Amino acid sequence: MIRFDVITLFPDMFSALTENGVSRRAKQQGLYELVCTNPRQFTHNKHNTVDDRPYGGGPGMLMMYPPLKAAVESIEEHTQVKPHVIYLSPQGQPLTQAKLDQLKTRSNITLVCGRYEGLDERFIDTYVDEEICIGDFVVSGGELPAMMLMDSLIRLLPGALGHASSAEEDSFSDGLLDCPHYTRPLEVDGMRVPEILQSGNHAKIADWRQQQKLIKTEQKRPDLYSIYKAKQS
Ligand code: 9D3
Predict the structure, then answer these.
(1) Per-residue model confidence as pLDDT tens digits over 43-55
(2) In 3D, which of 20, 63, 15, 61 has the Cα closest to residue 36?
(3) Which of 151, 191, 201, 217 has the greatest number of CB atoms lying within 10 Å of its CB?
(4) pLDDT tens by residue, 110-130
(5) 142 pLDDT higher than 90
(6) How far apart are CA 150 and CA 86, in angstroms?
(7) Whose CA is nearest to atom 13 of ligand 1?
(8) Which residue blocks in 1-48 are alpha helix, DSSP H?
(9) pTM of the entire structure?
């Protein structure tokens, strides 16, 4: 059982994860627990302010140190463990399947979601163990990145996927893209399902699928194909 604590100004967003699909079933099975902590709970001023203007000027606002500190410390208080603290950040290391394989062994992960222009640097220095980014593009805050991280990690927990679709068969576990798939009807708009898939010869089908993975990866992701080829030799 992994416990995820999420520090967020928008806890309602996380129902997208807990109320749908694989991640909903995994939660029902007790494979993980998700608790949101809103830094706004730890503000004392009249308007529950969690943000303030940057020293030195410039656009936008920053999340202040004190409410974030109080949020982390309330989580530590509650769980009685020092969690692994991840800040979802545009300045982070890119999330990879290898990173997820490391993270899946942890029992307590705290995810800090930034809003505005980010966090006071002193919070990162003091409380953050690692910064993770989900790609070189801009989103409005850390919540969707945090959900992506949790969703991809939950899939790796034993029992989260049916044995029908194992995590090992997932794209990227072997560094290659998936092969094409077909379902009924056998023919649609003049296009037929490849003959081999109807042959019943499971060894030949497995060979074909492996070939297709290589072809698709070379066509669509030459960068991944090069890495795969380098590893083979
Ligand atoms: C001009 C400086 N911008 C930094 C790239 C400002 C800024 C934009 C977006 C600051 C924070 C954000 C919010 N993004 C995230 O919190 C975020 C994120 C992302 O935008 N892209 C990829 N991964 C991530 S993880 C968290």
Answers:
(1) 998 899 999 999 9
(2) 15
(3) 217
(4) 999 999 999 999 999 999 999
(5) yes
(6) 11
(7) 141
(8) 15-18, 21-28
(9) 0.96
Mean pLDDT score of the chain: 96
Question: Residue 53 catalytic?
Answer: no
Cα–Cα distances (Å) from 154 to 52, 135, 176, in that order, read 35, 20, 21
Distance of CA 139 from the midpoint of ligand 1 (Å) = 6
Any ligand 1 atom below 6 A from CB of 147: no
CA of 140 to the centre of ligand 1 (A): 6
Binned at pLDDT 50, 70 and 90, residue 164 comes out as low
Q: Which class for 89: exposed (0-12), middle (13-18), buried (19 or more C-beta within 10 A)?
A: buried
> Residue 153, SS3?
helix
If you measure from the C-alpha of residue 112 to the centroid of ligand 1, how many angstroms do you get, rounded to a whole number? Answer: 13
34 within 8 A of 150, measured Cβ to Cβ: yes
36: tokens are 């949101």
Percent of the chain whose pLDDT exceeds 70: 97
Q: 170, 174, 178, 218: which one is catalytic?
A: 170
Domains of the chain (ranges, CATH numbers): 2-154 (3.40.1280.10), 171-232 (1.10.1270.20)
Please, are residues 38 and 67 in contact by the beta-carbon 8 Å criterion? no
64 with 49: CB under 8 angstroms?
A: yes
Annotated active-site residue 90? The verdict is: yes
